[in-house]
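Protein modeling request. Please complete all fields; requests missing the sequence field cannot be processed.
Requester role: graduate student
Desired output: 3D structure, token encoding
Chains: 1
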Amino acid sequence: MGDLDKIKQLRKSTGAGFKDCSAALSESNNDIEKAIEILRVKGISKASKKMSRDAKEGLIALSGNENKTSVLEVNCETDFVAKNEDFINFVKELSDLNNHVNSDLESLNKSIMKNKKSVSENLVSMIAKIGEKITLGRAKTLKYENSKNYYYLHSVVKDNLSKLAVISTIGTNEKVEKVDIFGKQLTMHIAASNPISVEPEGIKKEILDKEQELITEELKVSGKPEDIAKKISSGKINKFKEENSLMTQQWVMEPKKKVKEIINELGIKDLKIIDFYRIKIGD
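Delivered output (283 residues):
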């Protein structure tokens, strides 16, 4: 096999550039197996140097079906790389693996990809090849008994890959078209309104405590009497809960009504929003 043929084979096996392959073959005395190991070690080194940089761009991958739906965030440094075909194909393959392991990132990193290498190994190779920091970000799987999942993708890059994704889970025994229409509209509402929880009671204490701190500081500066300040503070917290809870938000498609009123108008007694998840690149 000639030198050029060996370089071509090495490039095909590793995805490394022409110069890197040529240098690795020279260093290994034209031993392809040793050259592959040299490139692997160099790739790890390159990847390690890049991991201190910010990676706030990337893609959200959605996978699964109406019974179990998963999303996975894969971050990179620039939008240019997020549109790179190699990066897109890498994320698409990760998407199905993520759904298979129920968004357990530790299991996902150990999962074997089509090239017989683990996700973590391929991640290192991808970083070395593309030249940017690439990380696995947030991941979530929604799966509940006696329910159906709906999804919405915004700013779609390709197929199941986008910049923003929403999954919502609705529980009901009724199998009617109006439930499906509402489910799809609900995911669009969540994408636009970004609620924190389904009900006001579901907002985490640390979020409310932080909001209370901000309100308290604001009222201190205003110089209002303590009794009036307390009433204003209570009102502001209640408004915060109402505006950030899905059931009490104004329905995007009909702003004069709240989400809970739209559900009541459907006339399906057992219909319940069980859960939702919204994820956006950069948030």
